[in-house]
UniProtKB/TrEMBL annotation:
GO molecular function terms noted in the UniProt entry: hydrolase activity
Domain Beta-lactamase-related: 37-354
Membrane-crossing segments per the record: 7-26, 388-407, 428-449, 469-492
Listed InterPro entries: AmpC-like, Beta-lactam-related, Beta-lactam/transpept-like
UniProt-listed Gene3D superfamilies: DD-peptidase/beta-lactamase superfamily (3.40.710.10)
One Pfam family hit: Beta-lactamase
Lineage, broadest ranks: Bacteria, Bacillati, Bacillota, Bacilli, Bacillales
Keyword line: Hydrolase, Membrane, Transmembrane, Transmembrane helix
Protein name according to UniProt: Serine hydrolase domain-containing protein
Enzyme class: hydrolase
Enzyme Commission number(s) of this protein: 3.1.1.103
Amino acid sequence: MKALLKIYLSIIVTIVSFYSFTPTIVNADANEKIQKIDQFIQEQKAISKIPGISLVIVEKGKTVYEKGFGYADVQSKTPVTSNTLFELGSTSKAFTGFAILKLEKEGYLNRSDDVRKYIPWLELEYNGEPQEITINQLLYHTSGIATNTISNIPKSNEENALELTVKKLLDQPLNRQPGSSFEYATINYDVLGLVIEKVSKQPFDMYIKQQILEPINMKDSFVGLHQVKSNEMASGYKIGLMREQEYTPPIYRGNIPAGYIISNTNDIANWLKLQLGNSQINSFENKIIQESHIPDQSVKPFDKDTYYASGWEVIRKEDKQYIFHAGANPTFSSYFIMQPDEQLGVAVLSNMNSSYTTEIGQGVMDLWEGKTVNTIHADNLQNLDKTLSLICVIVIGFGMFLSVLLLQSLKKVIKKQRIRVALNMKRALLLVFHSLSVAIIIALIIMFPKVLPGGSNWEFIKVWGPTSITVLFYSVIVSSVIYYLVGLVKIFTKKEKN
């Protein structure tokens, strides 16, 4: 009997020892992952020049990692925390897509409906013929609306800004037959935002705040900058002259449904948990969430094995499905990625428009899953800025040289070392050639955006591009004017003979 009791106690001790030891192994594994993630983000932050980054990881209904890196405001050295607010950019689209599915479930609309049922004046044409565009086609970016319509979104903080934005589509024909293929156009979701207003009889911002954000306890999030009543808002930055530059872009209130939810990682953790089906909040049917993740496979994938759902991109690789989306505004960017089978989600928010935000989010997901990470990444805006910064140095240097030359020439005129002469045929031809050459340079600079693929305008480029673009633009204009003045002095004066 005693022998059996000893064996029994031995087994119990072994089991207890095993289970008490197992969490230590798990914690050690998690700690190792966290150390790698911390190091990875610090390295990427330094390379990318992003001032501030906020990261959250959720797994199986719990927030397993949440941390801020760098500054919400560089000048005041305000650190990023989990309460720091960021503009989300296009990761806002999932909220708008979710609202559409919710309204359909409640019987307010059908996704197969023609959008003109809700916005009768939205008559869009392809090849001169009016087209039927469904709610689904707007959700999946198969409406035929062109990508470059983003450059026509009006600057406005008025209450009717959303309608003004959608009306801009009336000036531009569709780029393809609705439903024929994928073309990402951010304004698709502004149209959906206006549909939400029409059927809910509420302003879009109030509907999303009251019907989506508040029920899932995203209490510190806002729908548009005009709603923000908090001192936690991060300052926004752009890359420029190879460093971060604080910048305040125009307000595009009409683009809120596509890109201007304001949130922090505390609240985004709740959003990810809801998406993964393990939220403690049961305000919404899980079926709506699942439907929002179903991709449109009626058209070809827009990237390798990647299809678009309702504000989400969906890809299957290595027998795993990933649901993700990147977001970018002129001075902010974000990236959300989820792996439903593992109930794992990662969100990265940053206060600079940079593709490094996406790389960081993808890298963190890989590290948490135990994969190796490629730390080499090229950001197009950063590379463009490096090139433009070098050209700026050359142009400004040339402008300074011309300024010295102009001052010397004027000094000689004042001292009568150069005297005025009448125009002869040769000098008249030089004047015409000189004036034309400068006029052509300035005209080419002004018209340059129009010749870019898809067409654009300087206002859009200045807002979305590196600040070095603006510096270069004015440097070329000023240098051209100085060059013209130097030429005029040379043409209308000559050296005085001793």
